[in-house]
Task: structure prediction
Amino acid sequence: MFRLEHVCIFFFLLSVGDSLSTVESFDPFVGRWTIAEAMSTMRSRVGVAVLNGKLYAIGGYDGMERLSTVEVFEQDSRRWRKVTSMNCKRSALGAVGLNKKLYVLGGYDGVASLRSVEVYDPETNVWTILSSMLKHRSAAGVTVLDGEIFACGGHDGLSIFDSIFESFISIGLIQRSPEHDTRP
Result:
């Protein structure tokens, strides 16, 4: 199980198409970074989320193509293992754990930003496609607040957003009312 006093951060540097598989972990009590177990796949623009005390690395770009593969880091064994791949290849995706499921939103498939949303159930090891977001988004910030998933900002291939336009809950999409929409 993850200890709350440690933060695990991934660094992926893209340099002339190079992606990394290395993982670094920061211990705030001693103020030191250490190298953690490397993933089996090189990934940049990867989605990362914690679910049920396990760290997931989702999709990304390996320097050649977008990925649909998913790896999970198990703290007790200190090892990465592969789980079922997503339905869609994507990098620059948003990912978050909620209610014992892992949600993946948007991203980039190598041609365009995506609206699609998938949910992973670790109990069945199955990905399911959900209803799409209202906007195409890659590199969006994604978080949970009061049981809802918020997709904030990102890039739609045409412009940069700076407002929250919608939120997801486990039973569907909630749209913002027009009076709260700050878009020009």
Summary: The domain at 7-180 is CATH 2.120.10.80 (Neuraminidase). The first strand starts at residue 7 and ends at 9. The radius of gyration is 16 Å.
